[in-house]
Amino acid sequence: MMSQPAKILSRTEPFSLLDQDQLKHIVPSFHTIHTPAKVLLVEQGKPVPCFGIIENGSVLITVSDCFNHDIVNYTLTAGDMLFDMALLSNAPATSSAECQEETRVLCIGSVKFIEILERYDHVKRFFCDTVKSGMQLYHRPLASKPEKIHDDTDQSTESDRINDLFPLKAEAYIENNYWKPLTLDILARETATSRYHCCRSFKKYFSCSFKQYLNKKRVERARLLLTAHGYSVTDAGFAVGYNDASYFSRVFKNIEGYSPKRLCNKNSARAGKGSRENLTSPARFALNTHLQSIIADQ
Length: 298
Description:
- The chain folds into two domains: 131 residues, Jelly Rolls; 100 residues, Homeodomain-like (Arc Repressor Mutant, subunit A), CATH 1.10.10.60.
- The C terminus is likely disordered.
- The strands form two sheets. Strands 1-8-3-6 form a four-stranded antiparallel sheet. The protein has a four-stranded antiparallel sheet with strand order 2-7-4-5.
- The chain has 13 helices and eight strands.
- The chain has 298 residues and is an alpha+beta fold.
- β4 and β5 form a beta hairpin.
- The longest helix has 24 residues.
């Protein structure tokens, strides 16, 4: 019978793409820890001790500026991954994590986690690509407005500076939740803007509507499942947030110029490798993770 850690990993991308022998090899490195509410799992600026997947409960993630003001905060819940990009570079944590209630986390020490990345290349690529996309987004506003970097007369208002955080918040939230039933109202709430300003800001920073961006993100991930992992059209659509296979096919064709079925036919040798039964939501990427003092004893 499959153990609980093995079940969780088998449902979480990229670990779900490992075969049974590979999964059996990494499972012993994971441990489940129980933490009460208000426990600070990690402090921003301290070493990142581990990688984890929340089994139940919730964790508040915060990023503070040099004045000790929280500029980003959001909550991770069951199924979300606790992952800080600093883990890949042995740098201090980029954020803090605190349990909001009694929480159970399946975790692995940072050293063992890096060993897994080195052993399984596709797992390594998954996390490196996620960090890369985040860094590219971080630099984009600066690259597009170089004249403001050394402009001592810049009179930007506090509202302007808050709006500059919008693309970071929006893209991070969509990246972590694109398979869910997202709406513009939900995104507005998560980015602390009104629906009107959310709509305007989205078009300003991404040059497309929220719906267009979400569909492109979903199709991009579905295409990977279809070509690299042999999922069927129905399973791939279901995995990225489409419950209607026909609607998914129409959206896919509008964006790619051909149907997902045609793509599957080109990869028939791999067809049937994945199934909805083994597939749940893709891994929830959040910019954090951390179980500092608790994992230290393990």
